[in-house]
Amino acid sequence: MNYNYLGNKLEMFPVSSSNVLDVGYDRQNETVLVRFLNNTVYAYKGVNEIVFEELKTASSVGSYLNRNFKNVYPYERVE
Questions:
Q1: Are 52 and 23 in contact (CB under 8 A)?
Q2: Gyration radius of the chain over CA positions
Q3: Which domain holds residue 44?
Q4: Count of domains for the chain
Q5: Averaged over 24-52, what is the pLDDT?
Q6: Is this model's pTM higher than 0.90 or not?
Q7: Is it the case that residue 2 has pLDDT exceeding 90?
Q8: Closest by alpha carbon to 55, among 25, 27, 28, 78?
Q9: How many angstroms separate the CA atoms of 1 and 74, rounded?
Q10: Within 10 Å of residue 11's Cβ, how many Cβ atoms?
Q11: How far apart are CA 22 and CA 35, in angstroms?
Q12: Max alpha carbon distance in the chain (Å)?
């Protein structure tokens, strides 16, 4: 599934999580998009691609997100 963010069509990757539906990465803006199961989408800014890859493949996406994104990267709700 794709997501249009700031005019960029981003590929969203499904993840195995009880809280997160899928995640995507905007290389141009170094932004991670996270779509939760309730269909809200948040953009986390200033994230390098390595951290995104770690999030995408984490054994617990929700735990990784809480541990490595919360209070680390600025974010905003985009949908």
A1: yes
A2: 11
A3: 2-77
A4: 1
A5: 97
A6: yes
A7: no
A8: 25
A9: 25
A10: 10
A11: 5
A12: 31
